[in-house]
TrEMBL record:
InterPro entries: PDZ (IPR001478), PDZ_scaffold (IPR051342), PDZ_sf (IPR036034), Znf-RING_euk (IPR027370), Znf_RING (IPR001841), Znf_RING/FYVE/PHD (IPR013083), Znf_RING_CS (IPR017907), Znf_TRAF (IPR001293). A zinc finger (TRAF-type) spans 105-144. It holds the Pfam family PDZ. The keyword Nucleus does not apply. Residues 43-81 form the RING-type domain. Residues 180-264, 277-359, 396-481, 512-598 form the PDZ domain. One of its GO terms (molecular function) is zinc ion binding. This is Ligand of Numb protein X 2. The lineage of its organism: Eukaryota, Metazoa, Echinodermata, Eleutherozoa, Echinozoa. Residues 105-144 form the TRAF-type domain. Keywords: Metal-binding, Zinc, Zinc-finger. It comes from the Eukaryota. CDD domains: PDZ3_LNX1_2-like.
């Protein structure tokens, strides 16, 4: 039995494991009966069906707790007022107890379970079979009384108003739902992972691309490539620019709290419920477009239709059969549609809803369709259009060098390093000729030095070229200028994923890989983008990897990779639906041509 403080001051309430109801710790169990109970089986003190019945010496029957309390204080029977002591009380006969045991009750967790059973079977049902009692909020010690299906625990913890510890230190992430984890790290230590995405790209969301060995995330052993990060501490990152997300993830606080969504693994049951939050912004002259109703056999409010050309239809996240749990902070789990309609009418320009979906959710359900791959049918959008990375300028820089003067730069990148990225300026010493001249900057990509091409060289070979130029009186660098937003004022320059996306096409290197489906039904990854994207024409990007899917197991494909070709079919100018069709037509082996850039390190 678990105790919780609640109600009036000094009153101890419990969430009882025997009856599943909330009542005083010294009170009777509480049951919901399927039909009226015979008066002969009712206690004359509490006027409820008898619980643990006891008889007085004068032949009257009461609940054990009720009669013991009366006799202790009044020392008599409350019916005929004959003197009684506690020693006079006896357990009722077996026939009465059996009749009470057979009374039919309904499971108290009506939101998730509508089972009826004999009263004597309820405790076993709650302990072993009831999906509505499978998990309890870890914030019970702070007063939270939530209990429900295990699949919804992490969704609840994310929204829990009692603000307790989100999930145990090493609680595993569940796929197909939201999970909140806390990652511990040493002072000054980075998370040790790379991410891609941001609302200026077709991915929109922030997705884990890679987890590095020896880092804090690796030690934690819960985050995986393909996980969608929706919140960092108290910062919502579902729809923010890439560099803003990097700033949030570089928060030095420890532990850092991450709320993530993981796609359902292949082969897992697709019928477990999921929960999402949907925000709709009202537009003058456009109907909200949500039809709601109650069901005869289930409590609560359900979406029965989403009207075409309405705000909800253009948003694209609400579906038929969604159950409405909350509207603008009002819990409507047990309410009637009339109450929901009143809340909708009183709402201002913004409506925040929490809904559950029996068939589960995917990462696409977190974003309005105007941010994904559907073109709006009218000249308005619910959310702002994303920004496209600016192309970076290419130019030649000539620098004169003194006889004994050092270059004074260090470089990074090259083939053989992480992601096979181009050679770029990692740091500049002010006492070298490059620092004195001031034309080269940290983050500039070096294409050639004195006519020697560096674009396809290994890092060590590029270093040799620079050293060989040390004796020259002047140096000519062909460069692509750094993005000032990323390099200016940085204590230590680390290129972001956006740096590589903005490179001109002739710098972007393709590579080939093969994925074999085996017995799997799919290749195990989702895509976004296409020439019909609401951002304007975009490449096809890999958004998420399905846990235990073909792509994830292969280790060859990463979130954020651009898919250029599939089995000879070019996707460079394909619509999103055409790209999906090409991938679905793969029978066994997919020969892919991709462009793969490393994600932003945090």
């Amino acid at each position: 039995m678990e105790t919780l403080f609640g109600g009036e001051e000094n009153e101890l309430n419990i969430l009882c494991e025997d009856c599943g109801q909330i009542h005083e710790s010294t009170g009777n169990h509480v049951y919901d009966y399927t039909e009226a109970v015979d008066e002969e089986l009712t206690c004359n003190v509490c006027l409820q069906p008898l619980v643990s019945p006891m008889d007085t010496s004068c032949g009257h029957t009461f609940c054990a707790i009720c009669i013991q309390s009366v006799v202790k204080s009044l020392k008599m029977c409350p019916v005929d007022r004959k003197a009684q002591t506690l020693e006079d009380l006896r357990q009722s006969n077996l026939i009465i107890r059996r009749m009470l045991d057979k009374l039919m009750v309904v499971c108290p967790n009506k939101t998730y379970c509508n089972t009826s059973m004999a009263r004597c079977d309820l405790e076993s049902h709650l302990s072993n079979r009831c999906i509505g009692n499978a998990a309890k909020c870890p914030n019970q010690h702070l007063g939270c009384l939530w209990h429900g299906p295990e699949e919804l625990l992490d969704n609840h913890v994310w929204e829990c108003p009692h603000k307790g510890r989100p999930v145990g230190p090493k609680a595993a992430l569940k796929d197909g739902c939201l999970s909140t984890v806390e990652v511990d790290r040493e002072p000054g230590e980075e998370l040790g992972m790379a991410f891609v995405g941001g609302n200026e790209t077709p991915l929109i969301g922030i997705v884990v691309q890679e987890v590095f060995p020896e880092g804090a995330v690796y030690r934690d052993k819960r985050l995986k490539p393909g996980d969608l990060i929706v919140q960092v501490n108290d910062t919502d990152v579902k729809d923010i620019p890439h560099l803003n997300a990097r700033e949030a993830l570089l928060d030095p606080s420890t532990p850092i709290r991450l709320t993530v969504f993981r796609e359902k693994a292949e082969g897992r049951n697709a019928n477990s419920p999921g929960m999402i939050q949907v925000t709709l912004t009202k537009v003058q002259g456009v109907p909200l477009g949500i039809k709601i109703a109650a069901k005869r056999d289930e409590p609560g409010i359900f979406v029965v239709d989403v009207l075409e050309d309405s705000i909800a239809h253009r948003d694209g996240r609400l579906k038929r059969e969604d159950r409405v749990l909350e509207i603008n902070g009002h819990n409507v789990e047990q309410s009637l549609p009339d109450r929901a309609a009143q809340i909708f009418k009183r709402a201002g320009s913004r409506i925040d809803m929490v809904v559950s979906r029996p068939g589960g959710i995917s990462s696409q359900d977190f974003y309005p369709s105007s941010l994904l791959n559907e073109l709006p049918t009218e000249p308005f959008q619910l959310l702002r259009p994303a920004l496209v990375p600016r192309p970076r300028m290419e130019k030649t820089v000539s620098i004169r060098k003194g006889l004994r003067e050092n270059l004074g730069i260090s470089i990074s990148g090259g083939r053989g390093q992480r992601g096979d990225v181009p050679i770029f300026v990692a740091s500049i010493q002010q006492d070298g000729c490059v620092g004195r001249d001031g034309q080269l900057h940290v983050g500039d990509i070096i294409l050639s030095v004195n006519g020697t091409d560096l674009t396809d060289l290994r890092h060590t070979d590029a270093v040799k070229v620079l050293k060989a130029s040390a004796n020259a009186k002047s140096l000519s660098f062909r460069i692509i200028e750094a993005d000032e937003n990323e390099s200016e004022g940085a204590a230590r320059y680390a290129p972001s994923w956006l740096t590589w996306l903005a490179l001109p096409p002739h710098i972007q290197k393709t590579k080939k890989l093969s994925l074999d489906k085996g017995r799997s039904k799919s290749l195990g990854f989702s895509i976004v983008g296409g020439k019909d994207s609401t951002h304007g024409p975009q490449p096809i990007f890999v958004k998420t990897l399905v846990p235990n899917g073909v792509a994830a197991k292969s280790g060859k494909l990463k979130c954020g990779d651009q898919v250029i070709e599939v089995n000879g079919h070019s996707l460079r100018n394909a619509t999103h639906s055409a790209a999906v069709s090409v991938l679905k037509q793969v029978n066994q082996t997919a020969e892919l041509v991709i462009i793969s850039w490393p994600g932003t390190v945090v």
